Amino acid sequence: MTRVLITGSTAGLGRAAARHLLEGGHQVVLHARNPARAGRVDDLARRAAGVVVGDLASAEETCAVADQVNAIGGIDAVIHNAAIYVDSRRVATPEGHARTLAVNVLAPYMLTARIDRPSRLVYMSSGMHEDGEASLRDIDWTARRWDGVQAYCDSKLFITALAFAVGRRWPDVCTNAVDPGWVPTRMGGPAAPDDLGLGHRTQTWLAVSDDSEATGNGGYWYHQCRRSPAPAALDESFQDALLDELIGLTAVRLP
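^ that's the sequence the OP posted. Answer follows.
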């Protein structure tokens, strides 16, 4: 039995992953953005190891989520599922960051640094990471004219690179990135062509399976098959520069 934290587990792929793991006999810690959303998963919460609440767009609430998770304890794996897709304008967080960057990158980074270290980490990427801008110029969109699609692509490049950077620094932790495909969730839309049933299977497999492939480090996965990510994500100098940017924006360092 494995205890897994899944961020953004009140809907879509996060909820599907939680249900799949619970049905498999594993323990799940659910995460909801606010109490109202937590109330929507009462059917899962009754079987869950716990429910943590906090808006990952807020640094303060993200830290509170980490504290709640550590109070529950015994986390074996974290699936960093929560994400913002395309904001039509730059929505500022309480700290003044672009919400896309905050939820998709800063929050997973802070949770990684603050949650008692699990044995497995799974970060949600996207095929759109290949169109991410690798210059790290103005990653918080304070000077550039806002482009919601580009901001999303950038964030997915950054989270993919973060997965590999963490894997380098913590070689004892199985750390991987997953492209779940373009699936018909609320985020993906009803016309999305990929298989919704397969959308969550790779991340749950990486979180709990004893399969030799699932217990490796530094993979980029699509439907349980390894793929090659964008070259920038594998570039160690890019990874290190990204970590410096994240430290500057959050004042948090990986242990």
